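Onboarding guide, step 5: your first structure request.
Type a short instruction followed by the sequence, for example:

Predict the 3D structure of this protein.
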Amino acid sequence: MRMIDTHFHIGVIPHEWQHILGLCELDTVIVPSDQMIPDYSTLDMVKDHYDRILTEKTENAHDFGIFNVFLAVTYPMWGLPLTLLDKGIELMGQYVGKPRVVGVGEAGMDTVTVEHEEVVFKAMVNFAKEHRVPIIVHTPPPRHSPYLGREKSDYDKRKVMERILKILVTSGIDPKKVILDHLNKETLEMAWGYGSWLGLSCCLDKLSGPEIVSFYREYGPDRFIVNSEWGFSGGGNRSVPKVVVDLKAANAPLEDIQKMVFYNAKTLFSLPI
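The system replies with structure tokens like these:
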């Protein structure tokens, strides 16, 4: 069964795991540009990040059976100052429309207390709407804050999701061009009525396979997109094939599984595969 991983941080996935995924028929990935890059200090470094994904990282992945590598571009919400935002958007405009650049992302918010996050997120939503491309929206991870030392009150998933949804609705972007990623039970219930695609990230600090099975049983397969988000906490490098096995064990029809791990993603990003 062919699979697509729509949240594949290729720079942190060892080659041996890329090979295993290729053997599992996960042959297509979308690499969202990193939104938290504290070591980046210039736009030249962001440009190099884009270019390496489209060249070196793509060539390496091809050797391991991941034959289709696509890129989503973004301006990091952490790592670069707001003073470079306009020029960062100009840089993104140079890439959107290039072969294998399929959208914006990841872009989103973790708090409602840091103005920088909201300013960047609004700019990314407006860019995606203007260019009529999909956007991968980062929502707060289901299990805990990735920021050590941050006050718990800063990290209220419900408040952040409410703000994200309000920004999306106010912008007028087509919900069918949006994937809300990293959802859990609470945020999924909030996001359902918006009408977007719904990203289920299976990795250490997000969802387990059985949790995804339970969401499938409650909501069906038509809007879910399973991905790994193999990044901050690791542990997701086998997650899309693992979820396929979990869904098969739950007697889900193959047609439903294929929607969640292949066809829904292909539709959202208009992938030429």
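Each response can be followed by summary notes, for example: The radius of gyration is 17 Å.
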